Amino acid sequence: MGSKLSEIGRFINADALISYVEERRHEDGGYCFVSVLDETNINDTYYAVKIYNLLGLEIPEREKTVEFLYTSAQMQTAVVAVAMAIEALSLLGARDLAREKLDLLFSKYNPLEGKFAVGLGGSEEFGTATPLEATYWATRALAAVGYRMDGETRERIRKFVMGFRKGDGFGVKGATTTMTYQALFTLKGLGYAVPDTTHFYRCEVYGGFTEVPYSLPPYLEPTFYAIRGLSLLGKRARYIRDHIRFIRALQNPNGGFRRSLEMGISNFQNTYRAVKALDELLKWY
């Protein structure tokens, strides 16, 4: 095991985690979190790439996965999935191929034309994709390939993001953990100062974080976003051991992770979030 995998393996079943991902790889190089289905897709494949990258492992048959991602990003593909494909291709060392998909991304997401792709397909399996989701993912994709936006585009995006400021967080009707993190990440990625916030601390409970302040129960999604948000701000969570116990309890027998303590099936999105959140927590442990 690599050092990263060994460290994480002290807290979760790392062998089962790797098996969970590997068993869901298909012949075309793509991944599908439901192993019996041959419905490979960009979303699952993106998170498989992210898991392997985080653990410092080589992805099996890399060339097949590169081809799958490149050919899957087409005109009918949702903007978030196009952005995911671009970032994953870059992570796999295929930056030139990733850059070839920029025209496709800009045909769907173009702030200078007022096209922020709100509501045109998101990454969240629960609830509605946030109005900032396409902006967040586009920012990630452009950073992954080293694309430099001009000043006018950056300012248009900044104004769009700041339009969702609610108190000291970001949201539609009120601040939420997901939108607050997406906003802060985007502003930082654009080179703007990141506004401070107490939102994440107000959503912290003894084991996980919630989407809105002073509520229950905690779920994996806001826990992931809150931990990433605190890290981005140069802060740290208060109840680190409790959060680690919370994440450990979310691993299912098949090696993947679910979103809540009560019930739920594993999927790649939540599995990556769990491992990434745990990785961040161990830096503070």
From TrEMBL:
Q: Which UniProt keywords apply?
A: Repeat
Give the residues annotated as coiled coil: none
List the InterPro entries hit by this protein, alphabetically. Answer: Prenyltrans (IPR001330), Terpenoid_cyclase/PrenylTrfase (IPR008930), UCP016175_prenyltrans-rel (IPR016648)
Task: Work out whether the entry's keyword set contains Lyase.
Answer: no
For the Prenyltransferase alpha-alpha toroid domain, which residue ranges apply? 14-76, 133-191, 201-277
Pfam families named among the record's database cross-references = Prenyltrans
* Gene Ontology terms for molecular function: catalytic activity
Name the UniProt record assigns to this protein:
Prenyltransferase alpha-alpha toroid domain-containing protein
